Amino acid sequence: MLRKVGFGFLAWLVPYVTAIPLMPLMESDEILFKTIMVVVGSLAGAFLTVIYFGGVRRSYLREGVLLGLVWLLLAWGLDFVALLPFSQVTLGRYFLEIGLRYVGMLSPTVAVGYVLSRRLEA
Question: DSSP labels for 12-33?
Fold first, then answer.
């Protein structure tokens, strides 16, 4: 579980750190800012998923689902601590603008788990 949490923290941290110097862009071109965040998050998530599964030897689909869920819950929790208090955004608005996007974290983890389970457990 610690490994899942560590990788999930990195998946959250990379876009968070990337966003800091780009905050002026949030004011001048919000759509470009959000596009960059989605791209950075997707690349980081895909890379970390591949690295994570290099250490998995069985129950691939289960691992993929659990990994995605841990990352999702961790990202929400970290945002509640590191983002929401400073952003003056309501919880509902947070989920509309940011929080629901994290559900996409399940895509690469479940997809890789599924493919590995089909190829290696069949």
Answer: HHHHHHHHTTTHHHHHH-HHHH
What percent of the chain has pLDDT above 90? 86
Which band of pLDDT confidence, cut at 50, 70 and 90, is reported for residue 120?
confident
Distances (CA, A) of 30 to 19, 33, 37, 45, 101: 12, 5, 11, 22, 16
Q: How far apart are CA 87 and CA 107, in angstroms?
A: 27
**CB distance 78 to 37 below 8 Å:** no
Q: Map out the domains of the chain as residue ranges.
A: 2-120
Structure tokens at 49: 């998923």
Q: Kindly give the residue spans of alpha helices, DSSP state H, lying in 29-90.
A: 30-53, 60-82, 84-87
Instruction: Look at residue 37 in the predicted model and tell me its pLDDT.
Output: 94
